[in-house]
Inverse folding.
Protein backbone atom coordinates (compact mmCIF):
# COMPACT_ATOMS: atom_id res chain seq x y z
CA UNK A 1 0.00 0.00 0.00
CA UNK A 2 2.77 2.37 0.97
CA UNK A 3 4.27 2.21 -2.51
CA UNK A 4 0.88 2.87 -4.15
CA UNK A 5 0.42 5.90 -1.91
CA UNK A 6 3.89 7.02 -2.79
CA UNK A 7 3.39 6.76 -6.55
CA UNK A 8 -0.01 8.45 -6.32
CA UNK A 9 1.53 11.23 -4.32
CA UNK A 10 4.28 11.68 -6.87
CA UNK A 11 1.75 11.84 -9.67
CA UNK A 12 -0.24 14.47 -7.79
CA UNK A 13 2.92 16.46 -7.17
CA UNK A 14 3.57 16.26 -10.90
CA UNK A 15 0.17 17.84 -11.56
CA UNK A 16 0.55 20.69 -9.10
CA UNK A 17 4.21 21.51 -9.78
CA UNK A 18 3.85 23.39 -13.10
CA UNK A 19 1.37 25.85 -11.56
CA UNK A 20 3.50 26.31 -8.45
CA UNK A 21 6.60 26.87 -10.59
CA UNK A 22 4.81 29.49 -12.66
CA UNK A 23 3.76 31.41 -9.57
CA UNK A 24 7.24 31.03 -8.06
CA UNK A 25 9.15 32.18 -11.13
CA UNK A 26 6.82 34.91 -12.35
CA UNK A 27 5.36 36.19 -9.11
CA UNK A 28 7.26 35.32 -5.95
CA UNK A 29 10.79 35.81 -7.33
CA UNK A 30 9.88 39.10 -9.06
CA UNK A 31 8.37 40.23 -5.81
CA UNK A 32 11.57 39.39 -3.96
CA UNK A 33 13.60 41.19 -6.60
CA UNK A 34 11.33 44.18 -6.14
CA UNK A 35 11.95 44.25 -2.41
CA UNK A 36 15.69 44.13 -3.05
CA UNK A 37 15.25 46.86 -5.66
CA UNK A 38 13.42 49.06 -3.15
CA UNK A 39 16.47 48.89 -0.89
CA UNK A 40 18.83 49.97 -3.68
CA UNK A 41 19.63 53.49 -4.73
CA UNK A 42 19.65 55.35 -7.99
CA UNK A 43 22.87 57.24 -8.65
CA UNK A 44 22.67 59.13 -11.87
CA UNK A 45 21.26 56.48 -14.19
CA UNK A 46 22.84 53.53 -12.43
CA UNK A 47 21.10 51.36 -9.86
CA UNK A 48 23.38 50.68 -6.92
CA UNK A 49 22.35 47.58 -4.96
CA UNK A 50 22.39 47.89 -1.22
CA UNK A 51 20.40 47.61 1.93
CA UNK A 52 19.36 51.16 2.60
CA UNK A 53 15.96 52.33 3.73
CA UNK A 54 16.64 55.64 2.02
CA UNK A 55 13.76 55.39 -0.46
CA UNK A 56 11.31 54.75 2.35
CA UNK A 57 12.57 57.65 4.47
CA UNK A 58 12.51 59.90 1.43
CA UNK A 59 8.92 58.90 0.68
CA UNK A 60 7.69 59.75 4.15
CA UNK A 61 9.66 62.99 4.43
CA UNK A 62 9.12 64.45 0.97
CA UNK A 63 5.72 66.18 0.94
CA UNK A 64 5.19 65.83 -2.83
CA UNK A 65 5.48 62.04 -2.54
CA UNK A 66 3.60 61.63 0.72
CA UNK A 67 0.80 63.75 -0.74
CA UNK A 68 0.27 60.97 -3.29
CA UNK A 69 -0.55 58.55 -0.50
CA UNK A 70 -2.93 60.92 1.30
CA UNK A 71 -4.63 61.80 -2.01
CA UNK A 72 -5.09 58.12 -2.76
CA UNK A 73 -6.43 57.38 0.70
CA UNK A 74 -8.86 60.31 0.61
CA UNK A 75 -10.17 59.47 -2.86
CA UNK A 76 -10.50 55.79 -1.99
CA UNK A 77 -12.35 56.51 1.25
CA UNK A 78 -14.79 58.91 -0.44
CA UNK A 79 -15.38 56.49 -3.32
CA UNK A 80 -15.96 53.51 -1.04
CA UNK A 81 -18.50 55.32 1.15
CA UNK A 82 -20.45 56.90 -1.73
CA UNK A 83 -20.49 53.65 -3.70
CA UNK A 84 -21.91 51.67 -0.78
CA UNK A 85 -24.55 54.32 -0.05
CA UNK A 86 -25.68 54.28 -3.68
CA UNK A 87 -25.39 50.55 -4.33
CA UNK A 88 -27.09 49.21 -1.20
CA UNK A 89 -30.55 50.65 -1.94
CA UNK A 90 -30.31 49.52 -5.55
CA UNK A 91 -29.33 45.98 -4.54
CA UNK A 92 -32.12 45.99 -1.96
CA UNK A 93 -34.73 47.12 -4.49
CA UNK A 94 -33.65 44.47 -6.98
CA UNK A 95 -33.61 41.71 -4.35
CA UNK A 96 -36.78 42.67 -2.45
CA UNK A 97 -39.03 44.67 -4.72
CA UNK A 98 -38.38 43.55 -8.28
CA UNK A 99 -40.41 40.42 -9.15
CA UNK A 100 -38.24 37.29 -9.07
CA UNK A 101 -38.36 36.61 -12.80
CA UNK A 102 -37.08 40.09 -13.67
CA UNK A 103 -34.30 40.16 -11.09
CA UNK A 104 -31.75 38.54 -13.37
CA UNK A 105 -32.46 41.04 -16.10
CA UNK A 106 -32.35 43.98 -13.69
CA UNK A 107 -29.01 42.81 -12.38
CA UNK A 108 -27.53 42.21 -15.82
CA UNK A 109 -28.59 45.68 -16.89
CA UNK A 110 -27.09 47.19 -13.76
CA UNK A 111 -23.67 45.80 -14.63
CA UNK A 112 -23.85 46.08 -18.42
CA UNK A 113 -21.24 48.88 -18.70
CA UNK A 114 -18.79 46.52 -17.01
CA UNK A 115 -18.36 45.08 -20.47
CA UNK A 116 -16.93 48.17 -22.06
CA UNK A 117 -13.18 48.27 -21.85
CA UNK A 118 -11.85 49.89 -18.70
CA UNK A 119 -9.87 52.54 -20.55
CA UNK A 120 -12.86 53.36 -22.73
CA UNK A 121 -15.15 53.70 -19.71
CA UNK A 122 -12.98 56.44 -18.21
CA UNK A 123 -12.77 58.10 -21.60
CA UNK A 124 -16.59 58.06 -21.85
CA UNK A 125 -16.81 60.06 -18.65
CA UNK A 126 -14.53 62.62 -20.25
CA UNK A 127 -17.18 63.04 -22.96
CA UNK A 128 -19.82 63.57 -20.30
CA UNK A 129 -17.89 65.83 -17.93
CA UNK A 130 -15.51 67.71 -20.25
CA UNK A 131 -15.44 71.44 -21.03
CA UNK A 132 -17.93 71.13 -23.87
CA UNK A 133 -19.24 67.76 -22.75
CA UNK A 134 -22.82 66.62 -22.33
CA UNK A 135 -23.29 67.96 -18.80
CA UNK A 136 -21.97 71.43 -19.52
CA UNK A 137 -23.81 71.72 -22.84
CA UNK A 138 -27.07 70.62 -21.21
CA UNK A 139 -26.77 72.97 -18.25
CA UNK A 140 -25.86 75.88 -20.52
CA UNK A 141 -28.67 75.01 -22.89
CA UNK A 142 -31.09 75.13 -19.96
CA UNK A 143 -29.62 78.49 -18.97
CA UNK A 144 -28.60 77.23 -15.55
CA UNK A 145 -24.97 78.23 -15.99
CA UNK A 146 -23.28 80.81 -18.20
CA UNK A 147 -19.76 79.43 -18.21
CA UNK A 148 -18.86 75.74 -18.52
CA UNK A 149 -18.11 74.09 -15.20
CA UNK A 150 -14.60 72.82 -14.56
CA UNK A 151 -15.38 69.17 -13.81
CA UNK A 152 -12.92 67.13 -15.85
CA UNK A 153 -9.34 67.15 -14.63
CA UNK A 154 -10.43 67.46 -11.03
CA UNK A 155 -10.67 65.10 -8.11
CA UNK A 156 -14.46 65.19 -8.55
CA UNK A 157 -14.17 63.64 -12.00
CA UNK A 158 -11.93 60.86 -10.67
CA UNK A 159 -14.44 60.16 -7.91
CA UNK A 160 -17.37 60.05 -10.37
CA UNK A 161 -15.52 57.65 -12.66
CA UNK A 162 -14.63 55.38 -9.75
CA UNK A 163 -18.11 55.50 -8.17
CA UNK A 164 -19.63 54.49 -11.50
CA UNK A 165 -17.49 51.37 -11.64
CA UNK A 166 -17.85 50.39 -8.00
CA UNK A 167 -21.60 50.95 -7.78
CA UNK A 168 -21.90 48.17 -10.34
CA UNK A 169 -19.51 45.91 -8.46
CA UNK A 170 -21.12 46.52 -5.06
CA UNK A 171 -24.65 46.10 -6.37
CA UNK A 172 -23.61 42.60 -7.42
CA UNK A 173 -21.98 41.61 -4.12
CA UNK A 174 -24.67 43.12 -1.92
CA UNK A 175 -27.45 41.60 -4.02
CA UNK A 176 -25.78 38.18 -3.71
CA UNK A 177 -25.87 38.67 0.04
CA UNK A 178 -29.46 39.89 0.30
CA UNK A 179 -30.87 37.13 -1.85
CA UNK A 180 -29.44 34.47 0.47
CA UNK A 181 -31.39 35.81 3.44
CA UNK A 182 -34.44 33.82 4.30
CA UNK A 183 -37.58 36.00 4.25
CA UNK A 184 -38.40 34.45 7.63
CA UNK A 185 -36.05 36.82 9.43
CA UNK A 186 -37.97 39.86 8.25
CA UNK A 187 -41.28 38.12 8.89
CA UNK A 188 -40.28 37.19 12.44
CA UNK A 189 -39.17 40.74 13.16
CA UNK A 190 -42.45 42.09 11.80
CA UNK A 191 -44.45 39.58 13.89
CA UNK A 192 -42.60 40.83 16.95
CA UNK A 193 -43.80 44.31 16.15
CA UNK A 194 -40.74 45.85 14.51
CA UNK A 195 -41.36 48.64 12.03
CA UNK A 196 -40.01 48.29 8.50
CA UNK A 197 -37.13 50.57 9.41
CA UNK A 198 -36.38 48.75 12.68
CA UNK A 199 -36.39 45.43 10.82
CA UNK A 200 -33.90 46.79 8.34
CA UNK A 201 -31.74 48.45 10.97
CA UNK A 202 -31.58 45.56 13.44
CA UNK A 203 -32.06 42.48 11.26
CA UNK A 204 -31.29 42.90 7.55
CA UNK A 205 -28.37 45.30 7.83
CA UNK A 206 -26.37 43.30 10.41
CA UNK A 207 -26.94 40.11 8.42
CA UNK A 208 -25.63 41.68 5.23
CA UNK A 209 -22.71 43.46 6.88
CA UNK A 210 -20.15 40.76 5.96
CA UNK A 211 -21.13 41.08 2.29
CA UNK A 212 -20.94 44.85 2.45
CA UNK A 213 -17.53 44.74 4.11
CA UNK A 214 -16.23 42.27 1.55
CA UNK A 215 -17.41 44.57 -1.22
CA UNK A 216 -15.93 47.58 0.54
CA UNK A 217 -12.58 45.85 0.88
CA UNK A 218 -12.62 44.89 -2.81
CA UNK A 219 -13.47 48.49 -3.69
CA UNK A 220 -10.64 49.77 -1.51
CA UNK A 221 -8.06 47.44 -3.05
CA UNK A 222 -9.04 48.02 -6.66
CA UNK A 223 -9.50 51.75 -6.21
CA UNK A 224 -6.25 52.54 -4.44
CA UNK A 225 -4.20 50.54 -6.94
CA UNK A 226 -5.76 51.98 -10.08
CA UNK A 227 -3.79 54.16 -12.45
CA UNK A 228 -6.15 54.65 -15.40
CA UNK A 229 -9.11 56.47 -13.86
CA UNK A 230 -7.15 59.22 -12.05
CA UNK A 231 -4.80 59.59 -15.00
CA UNK A 232 -7.59 60.07 -17.55
CA UNK A 233 -10.13 61.92 -15.42
CA UNK A 234 -8.14 63.56 -12.63
CA UNK A 235 -5.58 65.34 -14.74
CA UNK A 236 -2.23 66.26 -13.26
CA UNK A 237 -3.32 68.34 -10.31
CA UNK A 238 -3.61 65.90 -7.44
CA UNK A 239 -1.57 62.85 -8.27
CA UNK A 240 -2.40 59.50 -6.67
CA UNK A 241 0.14 56.93 -5.53
CA UNK A 242 -0.08 54.77 -8.69
CA UNK A 243 0.32 57.88 -10.84
CA UNK A 244 3.45 58.81 -8.88
CA UNK A 245 4.81 55.28 -9.26
CA UNK A 246 4.34 55.45 -13.03
CA UNK A 247 6.00 58.87 -13.01
CA UNK A 248 9.10 57.47 -11.27
CA UNK A 249 9.33 54.79 -13.94
CA UNK A 250 8.76 57.08 -16.87
CA UNK A 251 10.68 60.19 -16.07
CA UNK A 252 13.92 58.90 -14.62
CA UNK A 253 13.68 55.14 -14.70
CA UNK A 254 13.86 55.28 -10.92
CA UNK A 255 13.07 51.61 -10.32
CA UNK A 256 14.23 51.65 -6.67
CA UNK A 257 11.82 54.43 -5.71
CA UNK A 258 8.96 52.95 -7.77
CA UNK A 259 9.52 49.60 -6.04
CA UNK A 260 9.57 51.17 -2.59
CA UNK A 261 6.33 53.02 -3.33
CA UNK A 262 4.70 49.84 -4.64
CA UNK A 263 5.61 48.04 -1.46
CA UNK A 264 4.17 50.90 0.59
CA UNK A 265 1.00 50.61 -1.50
CA UNK A 266 0.89 46.92 -0.75
CA UNK A 267 1.44 47.61 2.94
CA UNK A 268 -1.56 49.92 2.98
CA UNK A 269 -3.72 47.22 1.40
CA UNK A 270 -2.49 44.68 3.94
CA UNK A 271 -3.35 47.04 6.79
CA UNK A 272 -6.82 47.52 5.34
CA UNK A 273 -7.20 43.77 5.15
CA UNK A 274 -6.40 43.30 8.81
CA UNK A 275 -8.62 46.24 9.74
CA UNK A 276 -11.68 44.53 8.29
CA UNK A 277 -10.53 40.90 8.44
CA UNK A 278 -13.11 39.88 11.01
CA UNK A 279 -15.94 40.72 8.63
CA UNK A 280 -14.34 39.35 5.52
CA UNK A 281 -15.28 36.03 4.06
CA UNK A 282 -13.23 36.24 0.90
CA UNK A 283 -13.65 32.56 0.16
CA UNK A 284 -17.38 33.11 -0.16
CA UNK A 285 -17.32 35.95 -2.67
CA UNK B 1 -40.61 52.60 0.63
CA UNK B 2 -43.21 54.00 -1.66
CA UNK B 3 -43.47 52.87 -5.25
CA UNK B 4 -42.66 56.35 -6.52
CA UNK B 5 -39.51 56.52 -4.47
CA UNK B 6 -38.42 53.10 -5.70
CA UNK B 7 -39.03 53.89 -9.34
CA UNK B 8 -37.38 57.27 -8.94
CA UNK B 9 -34.29 55.77 -7.36
CA UNK B 10 -33.99 53.06 -9.99
CA UNK B 11 -34.37 55.59 -12.80
CA UNK B 12 -31.68 57.85 -11.40
CA UNK B 13 -29.19 55.05 -10.75
CA UNK B 14 -29.75 53.23 -14.01
CA UNK B 15 -29.44 56.61 -15.70
CA UNK B 16 -26.11 57.19 -13.97
CA UNK B 17 -24.90 53.72 -14.88
CA UNK B 18 -25.89 54.00 -18.53
CA UNK B 19 -25.02 57.65 -19.16
CA UNK B 20 -21.37 57.24 -20.21
CA UNK B 21 -22.06 54.18 -22.36
CA UNK B 22 -25.00 55.87 -24.07
CA UNK B 23 -22.90 58.95 -24.80
CA UNK B 24 -20.06 56.77 -26.04
CA UNK B 25 -22.23 54.86 -28.49
CA UNK B 26 -24.27 57.87 -29.63
CA UNK B 27 -21.25 59.98 -30.53
CA UNK B 28 -19.55 57.12 -32.32
CA UNK B 29 -22.09 58.00 -35.05
CA UNK B 30 -21.08 61.66 -34.98
CA UNK B 31 -20.49 63.26 -38.37
CA UNK B 32 -18.14 66.07 -37.31
CA UNK B 33 -14.70 65.76 -35.76
CA UNK B 34 -15.59 66.10 -32.08
CA UNK B 35 -17.67 63.60 -30.08
CA UNK B 36 -19.52 66.32 -28.15
CA UNK B 37 -22.97 67.90 -28.50
CA UNK B 38 -24.62 68.88 -30.72
CA UNK B 39 -25.07 65.49 -32.34
CA UNK B 40 -25.00 65.84 -36.13
CA UNK B 41 -24.97 62.25 -37.35
CA UNK B 42 -25.69 59.55 -37.90
CA UNK B 43 -22.61 58.65 -39.86
CA UNK B 44 -20.65 55.43 -40.09
CA UNK B 45 -17.44 57.04 -41.24
CA UNK B 46 -15.60 56.58 -37.93
CA UNK B 47 -16.34 52.88 -37.98
CA UNK B 48 -14.87 52.85 -41.47
CA UNK B 49 -11.77 54.58 -40.14
CA UNK B 50 -11.46 52.07 -37.32
CA UNK B 51 -11.68 49.11 -39.69
CA UNK B 52 -9.18 50.78 -42.02
CA UNK B 53 -6.65 51.55 -39.27
CA UNK B 54 -3.94 48.91 -39.55
CA UNK B 55 -2.38 49.72 -36.14
CA UNK B 56 -5.73 49.31 -34.44
CA UNK B 57 -6.50 46.08 -36.25
CA UNK B 58 -3.06 44.70 -35.40
CA UNK B 59 -3.64 45.59 -31.74
CA UNK B 60 -7.01 43.86 -31.89
CA UNK B 61 -5.37 40.71 -33.24
CA UNK B 62 -2.63 40.91 -30.59
CA UNK B 63 -5.21 41.23 -27.84
CA UNK B 64 -7.08 38.17 -29.07
CA UNK B 65 -3.87 36.19 -29.32
CA UNK B 66 -2.62 37.13 -25.86
CA UNK B 67 -6.05 36.59 -24.29
CA UNK B 68 -6.64 33.18 -25.85
CA UNK B 69 -3.15 31.75 -25.33
CA UNK B 70 -2.63 33.09 -21.80
CA UNK B 71 -6.10 31.93 -20.74
CA UNK B 72 -5.52 28.47 -22.17
CA UNK B 73 -2.22 28.17 -20.27
CA UNK B 74 -3.79 29.49 -17.05
CA UNK B 75 -6.71 27.09 -17.44
CA UNK B 76 -4.49 24.06 -18.03
CA UNK B 77 -2.16 24.83 -15.11
CA UNK B 78 -5.09 25.71 -12.85
CA UNK B 79 -6.99 22.55 -13.78
CA UNK B 80 -4.07 20.22 -13.11
CA UNK B 81 -3.26 21.93 -9.81
CA UNK B 82 -6.90 21.90 -8.68
CA UNK B 83 -7.16 18.21 -9.57
CA UNK B 84 -4.04 17.37 -7.58
CA UNK B 85 -5.08 19.35 -4.51
CA UNK B 86 -8.74 18.32 -4.54
CA UNK B 87 -8.11 14.60 -5.08
CA UNK B 88 -4.91 13.74 -3.25
CA UNK B 89 -3.73 14.34 0.26
CA UNK B 90 -0.44 16.13 -0.13
CA UNK B 91 1.89 17.41 2.54
CA UNK B 92 1.80 21.21 2.66
CA UNK B 93 -1.37 21.43 0.62
CA UNK B 94 -2.61 24.45 2.60
CA UNK B 95 0.60 26.28 1.79
CA UNK B 96 0.33 25.27 -1.88
CA UNK B 97 -3.22 26.60 -2.08
CA UNK B 98 -2.04 29.84 -0.49
CA UNK B 99 0.79 30.21 -2.99
CA UNK B 100 -1.52 29.59 -5.94
CA UNK B 101 -4.06 32.16 -4.76
CA UNK B 102 -1.46 34.76 -3.69
CA UNK B 103 -1.25 36.81 -6.95
CA UNK B 104 -4.96 37.59 -6.56
CA UNK B 105 -4.24 39.73 -3.51
CA UNK B 106 -1.74 42.03 -5.19
CA UNK B 107 -2.58 44.89 -7.49
CA UNK B 108 -1.72 44.47 -11.18
CA UNK B 109 0.64 47.44 -11.07
CA UNK B 110 2.87 45.63 -8.58
CA UNK B 111 2.82 42.38 -10.58
CA UNK B 112 3.72 44.37 -13.68
CA UNK B 113 6.54 46.24 -11.99
CA UNK B 114 8.03 43.04 -10.54
CA UNK B 115 7.98 41.32 -13.93
CA UNK B 116 9.40 44.38 -15.68
CA UNK B 117 12.29 44.50 -13.22
CA UNK B 118 13.08 40.80 -13.64
CA UNK B 119 12.66 40.81 -17.42
CA UNK B 120 15.01 43.80 -17.62
CA UNK B 121 17.60 41.90 -15.62
CA UNK B 122 17.46 38.74 -17.74
CA UNK B 123 17.20 40.68 -20.98
CA UNK B 124 13.73 39.64 -22.09
CA UNK B 125 12.50 42.66 -24.03
CA UNK B 126 8.96 44.03 -23.59
CA UNK B 127 6.76 41.99 -25.92
CA UNK B 128 3.49 40.15 -26.30
CA UNK B 129 5.20 37.11 -24.77
CA UNK B 130 6.12 39.08 -21.64
CA UNK B 131 2.55 40.39 -21.41
CA UNK B 132 1.12 36.91 -21.88
CA UNK B 133 3.30 35.60 -19.04
CA UNK B 134 1.93 38.36 -16.81
CA UNK B 135 -1.63 37.56 -17.80
CA UNK B 136 -1.16 33.91 -16.85
CA UNK B 137 0.01 35.13 -13.42
CA UNK B 138 -3.21 37.08 -12.86
CA UNK B 139 -5.55 34.43 -14.31
CA UNK B 140 -4.03 31.27 -12.86
CA UNK B 141 -5.37 31.95 -9.31
CA UNK B 142 -8.80 32.63 -10.76
CA UNK B 143 -8.91 29.41 -12.80
CA UNK B 144 -7.52 27.42 -9.89
CA UNK B 145 -10.05 28.82 -7.41
CA UNK B 146 -13.05 28.28 -9.68
CA UNK B 147 -12.09 24.71 -10.58
CA UNK B 148 -11.00 23.75 -7.07
CA UNK B 149 -14.38 24.88 -5.74
CA UNK B 150 -16.20 22.97 -8.49
CA UNK B 151 -14.55 19.60 -7.92
CA UNK B 152 -17.08 17.61 -5.93
CA UNK B 153 -17.52 13.99 -4.93
CA UNK B 154 -19.70 12.92 -7.87
CA UNK B 155 -16.72 13.25 -10.17
CA UNK B 156 -14.49 11.47 -7.70
CA UNK B 157 -16.49 8.27 -7.98
CA UNK B 158 -16.62 8.40 -11.76
CA UNK B 159 -12.87 8.99 -11.84
CA UNK B 160 -12.27 6.03 -9.54
CA UNK B 161 -14.45 3.80 -11.70
CA UNK B 162 -12.51 4.81 -14.82
CA UNK B 163 -9.23 4.17 -13.04
CA UNK B 164 -10.41 0.71 -11.87
CA UNK B 165 -11.25 -0.09 -15.46
CA UNK B 166 -7.63 0.58 -16.34
CA UNK B 167 -7.67 4.12 -17.69
CA UNK B 168 -4.44 6.05 -17.35
CA UNK B 169 -4.51 9.23 -15.28
CA UNK B 170 -4.30 11.45 -18.35
CA UNK B 171 -7.23 9.61 -19.94
CA UNK B 172 -9.20 9.95 -16.71
CA UNK B 173 -8.60 13.70 -16.71
CA UNK B 174 -9.34 14.15 -20.38
CA UNK B 175 -12.29 11.76 -20.80
CA UNK B 176 -13.96 11.84 -17.37
CA UNK B 177 -13.02 14.85 -15.21
CA UNK B 178 -12.90 17.55 -17.88
CA UNK B 179 -16.27 16.73 -19.53
CA UNK B 180 -17.96 16.60 -16.12
CA UNK B 181 -16.50 20.01 -15.29
CA UNK B 182 -17.36 21.58 -18.63
CA UNK B 183 -19.37 24.49 -17.20
CA UNK B 184 -16.79 25.71 -14.66
CA UNK B 185 -14.00 25.12 -17.18
CA UNK B 186 -15.75 27.32 -19.73
CA UNK B 187 -16.61 29.91 -17.10
CA UNK B 188 -13.00 30.08 -15.90
CA UNK B 189 -11.74 30.31 -19.47
CA UNK B 190 -14.10 33.09 -20.52
CA UNK B 191 -13.48 35.08 -17.35
CA UNK B 192 -9.75 34.82 -17.97
CA UNK B 193 -10.19 35.91 -21.58
CA UNK B 194 -12.23 38.90 -20.40
CA UNK B 195 -9.65 39.96 -17.83
CA UNK B 196 -6.72 39.55 -20.17
CA UNK B 197 -8.55 41.27 -23.02
CA UNK B 198 -9.26 44.33 -20.90
CA UNK B 199 -6.03 44.43 -18.90
CA UNK B 200 -4.09 47.65 -19.27
CA UNK B 201 -1.23 48.23 -16.85
CA UNK B 202 0.66 44.96 -17.36
CA UNK B 203 0.32 45.27 -21.13
CA UNK B 204 1.34 48.93 -20.96
CA UNK B 205 4.56 48.23 -19.06
CA UNK B 206 5.43 44.95 -20.77
CA UNK B 207 4.87 45.74 -24.46
CA UNK B 208 6.69 48.12 -26.72
CA UNK B 209 6.32 47.76 -30.51
CA UNK B 210 3.48 45.29 -30.75
CA UNK B 211 0.79 46.42 -28.32
CA UNK B 212 -2.60 45.15 -27.20
CA UNK B 213 -5.87 46.98 -27.83
CA UNK B 214 -6.19 48.82 -24.47
CA UNK B 215 -2.66 50.20 -24.91
CA UNK B 216 -3.42 51.27 -28.48
CA UNK B 217 -6.62 53.00 -27.34
CA UNK B 218 -4.62 54.66 -24.59
CA UNK B 219 -2.24 56.17 -27.12
CA UNK B 220 -5.22 57.33 -29.21
CA UNK B 221 -6.43 59.27 -26.16
CA UNK B 222 -3.28 61.40 -26.20
CA UNK B 223 -4.47 63.17 -29.32
CA UNK B 224 -7.65 64.22 -27.55
CA UNK B 225 -11.32 63.37 -27.98
CA UNK B 226 -12.27 61.74 -31.27
CA UNK B 227 -15.36 59.89 -32.52
CA UNK B 228 -12.95 57.24 -33.73
CA UNK B 229 -12.18 56.32 -30.11
CA UNK B 230 -15.93 56.16 -29.54
CA UNK B 231 -16.29 53.81 -32.49
CA UNK B 232 -13.64 51.33 -31.34
CA UNK B 233 -15.00 51.54 -27.78
CA UNK B 234 -18.51 50.77 -28.99
CA UNK B 235 -17.27 47.85 -31.05
CA UNK B 236 -15.47 46.36 -28.05
CA UNK B 237 -18.63 46.79 -25.98
CA UNK B 238 -20.74 45.10 -28.63
CA UNK B 239 -18.39 42.13 -28.92
CA UNK B 240 -18.20 41.71 -25.12
CA UNK B 241 -21.97 41.80 -24.70
CA UNK B 242 -22.41 39.30 -27.54
CA UNK B 243 -19.87 37.03 -25.89
CA UNK B 244 -21.64 37.42 -22.56
CA UNK B 245 -25.01 36.45 -24.04
CA UNK B 246 -23.51 33.40 -25.75
CA UNK B 247 -21.79 32.38 -22.52
CA UNK B 248 -25.00 32.80 -20.58
CA UNK B 249 -27.01 30.74 -23.06
CA UNK B 250 -24.44 28.00 -23.59
CA UNK B 251 -22.86 27.54 -20.17
CA UNK B 252 -25.22 28.68 -17.48
CA UNK B 253 -28.59 27.77 -18.95
CA UNK B 254 -27.27 24.28 -19.60
CA UNK B 255 -25.82 23.80 -16.13
CA UNK B 256 -29.00 24.99 -14.47
CA UNK B 257 -31.18 22.43 -16.20
Amino acid sequence: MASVDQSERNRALGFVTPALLWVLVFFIIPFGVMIAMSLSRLEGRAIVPGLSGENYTRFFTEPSLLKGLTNSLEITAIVTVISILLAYPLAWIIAMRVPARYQRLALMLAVLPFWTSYVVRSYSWLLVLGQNGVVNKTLMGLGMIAEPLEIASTRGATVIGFVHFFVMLLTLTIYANLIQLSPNYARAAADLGASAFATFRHVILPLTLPGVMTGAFLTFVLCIGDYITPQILGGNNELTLPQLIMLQLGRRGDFPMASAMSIILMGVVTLAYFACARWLKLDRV
Amino acid sequence: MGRVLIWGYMTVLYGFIFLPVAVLVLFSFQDSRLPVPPFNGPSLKWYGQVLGDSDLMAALGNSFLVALVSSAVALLLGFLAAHALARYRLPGSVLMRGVLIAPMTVSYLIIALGLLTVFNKIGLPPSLLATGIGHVVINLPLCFAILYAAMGDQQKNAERAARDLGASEVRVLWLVSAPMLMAPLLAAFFLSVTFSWDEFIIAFLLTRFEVTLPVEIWSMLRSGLSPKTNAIGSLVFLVSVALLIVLDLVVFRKSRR
In short: Chain A touches chain B through 73 residues (CB under 8 Å). DSSP finds twelve helices and two strands in chain A. The CA atoms of residues 173 and 215 of chain A lie 6 Å apart. Chain A has a mean pLDDT of 86.
